[in-house]
Amino acid sequence: MIKLLHIETSGKNCSVAISIGNEIVAQRLVSAENFMHAEQLHVLMAEVQQESGIHWQHLSAVAVSKGPGSYTGLRIGVSAAKGICYAIGCPLIALETTAILAHYAAQTNTSKFVIIPMIDARRMEVYAGEFDATGKRITEDEAIILDETYFEQRRSQKLILIGDGAAKCASLAGDGVVIIDTLPHAAMMISLALNKYNEKQFEDVAYFEPHYLKAYVPGISTRSVL
């Protein structure tokens, strides 16, 4: 059976799951406003390893959310995934964060809605892409400033907005738009990762980098060094 470790750290959730085939055998999730991924990720990984009884050397592959999302969160998750792949020589699978959310929405989308995952990028900006009702990508991800114009162009479509950037669209989106205010987590990754494993869609472990979408701009620290 195919044994996969799933790591999702693109947002406020820090989550890990282990699956055998289509079944989740262990999962952990913590969520915090102050991004405790560096402190929590390896603790969660150790817990799911112990609960599942699956040692890393028995993994078929490691799947990781590649972004877009939090720069720091993505770096931590991808670094952990690459470290395990290097250590045991297993393949690396990368999943787009928007695709994870779209797939989750598509599982309960019985109507012909267009699915738009929206990842909060602060203020009225989101990272977003469009998917059809089955979760198949229509447009590439981009950074979008939300305003009335964005939704005016889509008034003829039935829309599902999903992600932590979706809630702030409620006043702009209008009636008939379904809003699912949720964060991606590792348990959402199972079937997408399994499909990529079966199709041997693996990343080059040495050169793989997260999909930041926008260049990282460091802020100025307000802490005193004295």
User: What overall form do the CA principal axes indicate?
Assistant: globular
Structural class label:
alpha/beta
Share of β-strand residues:
25-35%
Name the CATH superfamily assignment of the largest domain.
Answer: ATPase, nucleotide binding domain
Question: Major sheet, described briefly?
Answer: 5 strands, mixed
Question: How many individual β-strands?
Answer: 10
Strands of the biggest beta sheet: in what spatial order? 3-2-1-4-5
Mean pLDDT reading: 91
Report the CATH C-level class of the largest domain.
Answer: Alpha Beta
Query: Any guess at the CATH architecture of the largest domain?
Result: 2-Layer Sandwich
Q: From the 3D structure, determine the CATH topology of the largest domain.
A: Nucleotidyltransferase, domain 5
Please tell me how large the radius of gyration is: 18 Å
Count of helical stretches: 6
What descriptive keywords fit this protein?
226 residues; alpha/beta; Nucleotidyltransferase, domain 5; 5-stranded mixed beta sheet; 10 strands
Task: Characterise this structure.
With 226 residues, the protein is an alpha/beta fold. 27% of the residues lie in helices and 25% in strands. The protein is built from 6 helices and 10 strands. A 5-stranded mixed β-sheet has the order 3-2-1-4-5, sandwiched between helices. Strands 8-7-6-9-10 form a 5-stranded mixed β-sheet, with helices on one face. A hairpin with a 4-residue loop joins strand 1 (3-8) and strand 2. The chain is globular. The termini are far apart.
